[in-house]
């Protein structure tokens, strides 16, 4: 399946190795605690599933779905909640699990929204970041890889709901990135 993508940015083995490193960092930082991992649907679903199985402290999972108004490849920064958390996060150590930080506007909104619910702490863990596109000033404690300013697909990330099941991260062929 790799064949049709000439620009693979992160290979399957690299993802696996980095996910283990991030899980080790989180396990160390949250020793003796019971963090709540909040997966942002749908893009972060494989990342969260792989990450949580490598984390050695007891943790709980919850899910949130948000949508940002905009085109298929550009977000507007106006975020709305499509599915909210089941858990009450008051007093909890929350870790937001994101697929990619692009402008940072979604994560900035999530920090504000979840922060208002009186958690003990809120941190974020993103598989990918595109620093050159940043519009919001956010700090993400755990980051997997930096990617260039291209629309990326695979390992959960989609282009119009396609390509989520690729085992690697690739750049969307330029003719589709309109
Ligand atoms: P932000 O608010 O601009 O940081 O965008 C965050 C969300 O936009 C991510 O959680 C993704 O769902 C989506 N997104 C941004 N860049 C990409 C990309 O290159 N590929 C797939 N989805 C992306």
If you had to describe this structure to a student in words, what would you say it looks like?
The chain is α/β, with parallel strands linked by helices and 178 residues long. The chain has one domain: Rossmann fold. 21% of the residues lie in helices and 33% in strands. It is built from three helices and nine strands; from the N terminus they run βαβαβββαββββ. The strands form two sheets. The protein has a six-stranded mixed sheet. A three-stranded antiparallel sheet has the order 1-9-8. Strand 3 (60-71) and strand 4 (74-83) form a beta hairpin. 31% of the residues are buried. The structure holds inosinic acid. Inosinic acid is lined by residues 43, 68, 75, 98-107, 151-152, 157.
Strand order of the largest sheet: 4-3-2-5-6-7
* Envelope shape: globular
Structural class of the helices, strands and pairings?
alpha/beta
Helix content: 10-25%
Q: How much of the sequence is in beta strands? A: 25-35%
* Number of structurally distinct domains: 1
Q: Could you give a quick summary of the protein structure above?
A:
This protein is α/β, with parallel strands linked by helices and 178 residues long.
Topology:
Blueprint: E1 8-10, H1 12-29, E2 36-41, H2 45-52, E3 60-71, E4 74-83, E5 93-101, H3 105-115, E6 121-129, E7 142-146, E8 152-153, E9 169-171
Parallel strand pairs: 2-3, 2-5, 5-6, 6-7
Antiparallel strand pairs: 1-9, 3-4, 8-9
Bound molecules: inosinic acid.
